[in-house]
Amino acid sequence: MEIAEGVQMSKQKVVMFDFDGVIADSFNIFFTEFTRACEELGFHKLNSKEVLLSLFDGNLILSLFKLGFPPWKLRELFQKFQPRIAEANSRVKPFDGIKETLEDISRTYPTYIISSNLSEAVRNFLTRESINGIQDILGADVETSKVKKIKQISKKHPNHKPYYIGDTCGDIKEGREANAITVAVTWGWHSKERLLKSNPDYIVDTPEELRELLLS
């Protein structure tokens, strides 16, 4: 575990998790279904996994627009993507150890999921994997900006320090912009070397380290 200089742990926390790459080992399935939906709308620039990963250096939707995706087709993209990712999620598994970590943390602190995925898909995954304790899920169908979603949850818990756990540079940037303590995990979509460039407050290599960090 690595800790940024000057960071101190808070005793009262509200903990917010990203979904894909932190809880769900979903990259290959997400890449296949998301690029297919984009291509059916005439957008062919997601032609490699690295291009998709680069979208997560910032906010996914804004990065997609910058790459040239037409904003007026976003609703149609969600309509195409939602049933496919819902079906594909039946093949997605949680990372080893994350279920136990999530449930241990949620027994101590209010725990949420803030994701670029769709709320229903995340909810179905949690039900199928019998993962309990999550207070709410805020997916891209609720709001595309993670900054706004983190701030929304933080306002519900004014006496708790907000923590956001993510696996991409975009997660860390949005968490910081929302005034949350940022925790990067290295088992997800972006490499440790890439994540370090985003200067997270903490970086952990296993779900067990994450549990120890938040419950210590």
Briefly say what this structure is:
The protein has helices at about 25-40, 50-55, 60-65, 75-90, 100-105, 120-130, 145-155, 170-175, 190-195, 205-215; strands spanning about 1-5, 15, 25, 95, 110-115, 135-140, 160-165, 180-185, 200-205. With about 220 residues, it is an alpha/beta fold.
Structural description of this entry:
It is a single chain. The protein is α/β, with parallel strands linked by helices and 216 residues long. It is globular and about 50 Å long. The chain has helices at 27-40, 49-55, 60-66, 74-88, 98-106, 119-128, 146-156, 169-177, 192-196, 207-215, and strands spanning 2-3, 13-17, 24-25, 93-94, 111-114, 136-138, 161-166, 181-185, 202-204. It folds into 2 domains: 2-25 and 95-215, HAD superfamily/HAD-like (Rossmann fold, 3-Layer(aba) Sandwich), CATH 3.40.50.1000; 27-90.
Q: Can you summarize the main beta sheet? A: 7 strands, mixed
- Give the low-confidence spans: none
- Mean pLDDT reading: 91
What percent of the residues sit in helical stretches (DSSP H or I)? 40-55%
Q: Tell me the quaternary state.
A: single chain
Shape: globular
The end-to-end span amounts to 13 Å
Order of helices and strands: EEEHHHHEHEHEHEHEHEH
Q: CATH architecture of the largest domain, please?
A: 3-Layer(aba) Sandwich
Query: Mind telling me the C-alpha Rg?
Result: 16 Å
CATH superfamily of the largest domain: HAD superfamily/HAD-like
Percent in strands? 5-15%
- Total strand segments: 9
CATH top level of the largest domain is Alpha Beta
How many discrete domains? 2
Strand order of the largest sheet: 1-9-8-7-2-5-6
CATH fold call of the largest domain: Rossmann fold
Number of helices: 10
- Helix/strand/pairing category: alpha/beta
